[in-house]
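Problem 12. The chain below contains 695 residues. Write out its predicted structure in token notation.
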Amino acid sequence: MSTPAKLPELFGSMVFNEETMKERLSAASYGAWKKCVTEGTSLDISTANEIAEAMKQWAVEKGATHYTHWFQPMTGVTAEKHDSFISPAGGGKIIMEFSGKELVRGEPDASSFPSGGLRATFEARGYTAWDPTSFAFIKEGSLCIPTIFCSYSGHALDKKTPLLRSMDEVSRQAIRILRLFGDTETKRVTAQVGPEQEYFLIDKELYNLRKDLRMTGRTLFGAKPPRGQELEDHYFGAIKPRVAAYMKDLDETLWALGVLSKTKHNEVAPSQHEMAPIFSDANTACDHNQLAMEMMKKVADRHGLVCLLHEKPFAGVNGSGKHDNWSLGTDTGKNLFKPGSTPSQNAQFLLFLAAFIKGVDDYQDFLRATVAFAGNDHRLGAQEAPPAVISIFLGDELNGVVESIIKGTQHKDSGKRTLEIGVDVLPAIPQDNTDRNRTSPMAFTGNKFEFRMLGSSQSISGPNIALNTMMAEELKQFADELEKSRDFQADLQKLIKKVFTEHQRIIFNGNGYDDAWIREAEKRGLCNLTSTADALPMYTAKKNVDLFVKHGIYTKEEINARAEIHVENYSTVIGIEANTMIDMIRHDILPAVSGYAADLCERAASKEALGVSCKYETATARETAKLTDALMSACDKLERDLAKMPADAKKAMVYAHDVIVADMAKAREAADKLEAITASEYWPFPVYADLLFSV
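Solution.
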């Protein structure tokens, strides 16, 4: 275990980072790598060989015996194929080798990864290519080299490639805007991301007794316990010793891997917690979040715990999200969503704000689709998770600024200064001037936007690709217009006012759970895509496909493939859950409650023979029999309907949502009522009170 004094030494100790590269590479090779990262130049084979040799020597010194290209296929988790460093040297001896070619490119079998039709099963060849902007690291005795993953034909089969493309494109368009404001120094604008990660911790022994948790990651049954989160005492409460030990181990594991784990605390629901990192560039943030999710599960296992990342593992209490904090930063250290202290900075801020507002309004349907999957359907819309309607929360102060611009009226901020639009006359806009809105899907929080709709188990790549690309499109439109301007200040004012006026409908500062807002959103013409089945078709809407193809983020084939993968995943997940539910009903619940009813009847008969009242036994046996019949009927219907699942993926998605999910809810209703009246010793698996309050 580390001490505070040794934390700087611990941090990044298992990462082949820039400091290590500078120490171990020649000045020429280090300079070539640096230029590759900052300017996108290619590395020659001699430089790659030197980097590979240095990387291997460092890894071997750290105890590594293997290397792997670590990539992010369309499964939503990472993938790796390990090869040892050994090479035969003759005479039964070996040497440790690792070449530049092995560093730069790998060839894993791609046949069993989701491709959405980009390649047939017999077309097995796939390629991984080193991402030099993401540092290699050592995990469990293997040197892990972050890579992209593509098909033999060059199609992106992963989540990293389009993210890198979107980061380049938003940088390109943002720099065009900065040049209009006289910024000649900035060479790159980077999407900055900080994903807060929520999770549940439960006892491993109890987890192993729940088939639904093991098969699906969530409880398919579970009556409401006597106590949930009503007392509001868990949020930010004192951390229990067993959890504290886990969190300490997790922090140290992540720190050694260079992950900037910063915050840890109890979340709202019992046994729910959160880890939040410091901001980093979107590519690193995505890599680190994938790594964090893996380590959270592995560290939990060391402590006799299980880390649940499902969005709604327990009904009736808060689910787990992944709040994606997003902003744009320059290589000169400026946050473009920070309201500056000078008038010109404010005007620049308002233009970037206008671009974001317009982008969210124009592509609200696609943003919703990026967080659409079976697990998130259970979470969105209640208990501090945002509703399905996309809107932007600005807060009272900034919203007042926007309204004054739209109306062409004067606005007095908290400093009682009159506000006008213009490069040189706009007064300072205060930061952190409002409370946070937990019901908002997209909230401005002082110098960034918090996209709160992401599910806790998903990769953050897709939503950030969407944010980057929509922002690039709006900035491009603005730059195209303003670069032709003969009166920049006047045209800037007109543009900002026009955008705020035309897209004001997406701004909402109230309670997202209020039914009145849903009605108001409909009047405003906003999308209300309440389920995955509603949202995923938006993936391939023409305007959305055109957006990503236009900016070179996806080809048409690549975006259609991703849509197909998501559609198939939904019905597959629902099918697994339904089959698990049928299995548990038939093999666990029905036999248990039948045995309980039989014992009740036997006790009732014994009491009747003695002339003793058997009101409890008789009434409970009757209710148990009634609910048992209802559960069996619901299970039979679920099984019949599941057998009718359409072969077509899109039809299957709709059918799964409309029919199978409804069947499962009916079966659960009967089972949960049975749990509530069945004696504890008869119920076949741990209940919510055990699972939520045992750690």
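Discussion. Residues 4-158 form a domain with the Ubiquitin-like (UB roll) fold (CATH 3.10.20.70). Students who got a different answer should revisit the alignment rule from Section 12.3.
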